[in-house]
Amino acid sequence: MSGITSRFAPSPTGALHLGHAYSAIRAHDLARAAGGRFLLRIEDIDPGRTREAHITAIIEDLAWLGLGWDGEVVRQSARLGLYAAALDRLKAMDLVYPCFCTRAEIAASAAAPHGDEAPVYPGTCRHLDAATRAGRMAAEPHAWRIAMDAAVARAGPLAWRDDIAGAVVAVPEKQGDVVLARKDAPVSYHLAVVVDDAAQGISDVVRGQDLFAATHVHRLLQALLDLPTPLYHHHALLVGPDGRRLAKRDGAPALALLRHDGQDGRELADGLRRGQFPAGIFDQKA
Ligand code: GLU
Fold first, then answer.
1. How far is residue 277's CA from residue 264's CA, in Å, rounded to a whole number?
2. Which of 22, 42, 204, 207 to mutate to test the pocket of ligand 1 (most atoms within 8 A of CB)?
3. Where is each Glutamyl/glutaminyl-tRNA synthetase class Ib catalytic domain found (predicted)?
């Protein structure tokens, strides 16, 4: 067996569509071609949006596509202690702070410049004094945010390797003080993904280009938590006729629908491997 371990890590908050299938196939094939391991991790950290029915469908979709994984299916909801321990380490380094702001307050902040993803947090709660912070923590729900400037200063210059983009200098500052633990969920995507990729020995992270910006933050967290950095493969996304990436909300057909329609999943997967996409669907580069 080679040293390659890859994973598919869907969030069970909706149905998988062709874009997910494409990503899963690429991650699976990378490992299988090298005689390595391919893991399935269910990123069910959002209790409000996770549905058991989506988890069942994900498992059936992958089997239908002919993609087998190694070992047990890992669910992030069963690993909350690991994420809490990582957050505690960052607290001990004084690199995180509680944030009491609502989404509406952040959105209303006219000064907030926009990063690659969500609006960049204007830093309101970073400057609270210790007494105010302690009082509000006892009384109000709060998230935990990274103190980005302090974290970057502590980590020093960082880079990572992307099989497609080449050597990338990490610029996490652009994302601002991102959330590491949410008010309504004990951990955010950024922290959970970094902890799990390391804990599961993931050597190669294969995922869509839409998560490229997040990797700047992931690289920083790896440095702060002394975790290894995998090789990344941020692949082009599948897009619809309007050039926008496939999304369920824009009518991208769910794999489950194609499956129930009697389509052959293995044939579909082989088509995607050869770059033959169903009508109206393109690879972003094309
Ligand atoms: N759970 C994330 C998603 O479904 C993907 C995580 C990753 O591949 O890093 O968008």
1. 14
2. 207
3. 4-273
Of 162-166, 208-212, 243-247, 268-272, the one with minimum mean pLDDT is 243-247
Separation of CA 69 from chain center? 19
Query: Closest Cα partner for 37 from 4, 10, 68, 65?
Result: 4
* pLDDT at residue 118 greater than cutoff 80: no
Which domains, ranges and CATH numbers included, belong to the chain? 1-78+238-286 (3.40.50.620), 79-232 (3.40.50.620)
**For ligand 1, what atom is nearest to the CA of residue 208?**
8
Which residues form the pocket of ligand 1, taking CB atoms under 6 Å from any ligand atom?
A: 9-11, 43, 193, 207, 211
- Reported as type and span, the H/E element at residue 19 is helix 18-33
- The mean pLDDT value of the chain amounts to 93
Stated pTM of the model: 0.94
Q: Which atom of ligand 1 is nearest to the CA of 193?
A: 9
Pairing of strands 96-99, 143-146: antiparallel
CB-CB contact of 181 with 221 (8 Å): no
* Amino acid identity for residue 34 in this structure: A
Query: b vs e for 261-280, b when ≥16 Cβ sit within 10 Å of the residue's Cβ?
Result: eeeebeebbeebeeeebeee
